[in-house]
Amino acid sequence: MTVTVNLQQEMFDAGALVNQFTRDLPEAGAVATFTGLVRSTPDKPIRALILEHHPTMAQKQIERFAQEATDRFDLLAIEVVHRFGEMQVGEPIVQVMAASHHRQSAFDGANYVMDWLKTDAPFWKKEVGPDGSYWVDARETDETAKEKWTK
Amino acid sequence: MTVTVNLQQEMFDAGALVNQFTRDLPEAGAVATFTGLVRSTPDKPIRALILEHHPTMAQKQIERFAQEATDRFDLLAIEVVHRFGEMQVGEPIVQVMAASHHRQSAFDGANYVMDWLKTDAPFWKKEVGPDGSYWVDARETDETAKEKWTK
Amino acid sequence: MIIRYFAWIRERLNRDQQELALPESVQTVADALDHLRATDEDFAAILPPETVFRVALDDELVELDTPLGNAKELSIFPPMTGG
Amino acid sequence: MIIRYFAWIRERLNRDQQELALPESVQTVADALDHLRATDEDFAAILPPETVFRVALDDELVELDTPLGNAKELSIFPPMTGG
């Protein structure tokens, strides 16, 4: 049972991470992966994303969510990679990978960490758009997403 | 909105598929991936897995589940790769990738397809163990997993 | 009509498909299975009515009381265990 | 005590941290914020009591009534928008 959390400024290769994560888990029948990407949509175009973070607090918080997910869903391994700094459209921001014997716990483990990450990990998004850059507001739906785990 | 379903005997590279899938989706903020692997556990060791399938029916069924997931969860794209034939421990069997604007629909899309796949796609597992090979029985929990989507 | 067999049913019957001319009286999937049981000892022994198996007509899962209609293929197989 | 600021709060205050000697009477997070408002005009203008922000003591999210205890760092930041 391994919990790995990496905060890094550098770009990462989503697929390479999946393969690396999976390689040493002969007992894992199921791997669920979530990749969050910088997106630009026609109604809200952006050029880049700047992600500010609280380094020591982020590391501790994410390790805690990952450990909680491991215990709760009986995961074989979990890995979280989260970037900070400036990123371009299409680049990955975050990746969560959860391995388990069974598919539902792998899905739930990755989903659980993402829900908490969105609301409780100390990261702040600044979008760089055509009319300048602005801080993103916290979304109500992220708070409600978290509640499903306390039911 | 693209639905891609590939049934193949050859091994696939889980990470390369993730990267390929993600590359042409600048609007996708979220990609959820499920990878099912051949597993061997100490209490139930196997040497290999043989997966028999009904080719035309499998293709049609999986395309239908994938299309349903796309409509239901408003996915930007979904791709399913499912192998048949003989596979070794640690090799991937199936991969489902769902892309969306938002993380929950990406998770739900991949999860939905996997639940239906397990029970309704015409594949049959034969495990090759130390004492010969045997067909795997259908599991009750797979039937109940499906029910969560009809609530 | 083509009858196709899969997994342990295919193995135990020792064939993966067969062509079968069905009499007029055979209207539904259940009729076809009864006809096979009546005319084929192996089939009757391996797939008695209480066996748990599924059937598809031309790639669509169907029930026992589904009419054969113009279907070209009847597939007989155990519950699926894919994914 | 070190006070650290993040995101738009850091930008508007135009500093990312400051060292602060707190008087004995300052016992809780709320006391520290009140002290900052009383002694720092910029802080008072940018972080009035009705602002929505969060606080952490030594990397742990805390409430306004949490005692400062032996904490070395107080972090002040907007609601998180990560992931």
TrEMBL record, chains A, B:
The keyword Aminoacyl-tRNA synthetase does not apply. It comes from the Bacteria. It catalyses: 2 [molybdopterin-synthase sulfur-carrier protein]-C-terminal-Gly-aminoethanethioate + cyclic pyranopterin phosphate + H2O = molybdopterin + 2 [molybdopterin-synthase sulfur-carrier protein]-C-terminal Gly-Gly + 2 H(+). SUPFAM superfamilies: Molybdopterin synthase subunit MoaE. Its EC number is 2.8.1.12. Pathway: Cofactor biosynthesis; molybdopterin biosynthesis. Keywords: Molybdenum cofactor biosynthesis. Belongs to the MoaE family. Heterotetramer of 2 MoaD subunits and 2 MoaE subunits. Also stable as homodimer. The enzyme changes between these two forms during catalysis. Converts molybdopterin precursor Z into molybdopterin. This requires the incorporation of two sulfur atoms into precursor Z to generate a dithiolene group. The sulfur is provided by MoaD. This is Molybdopterin synthase catalytic subunit.
From TrEMBL, chains C, D:
Signal peptide: none annotated. SUPFAM superfamilies: MoaD/ThiS. Pfam families: ThiS. This is MoaD/ThiS family protein. It comes from Maritalea mediterranea.
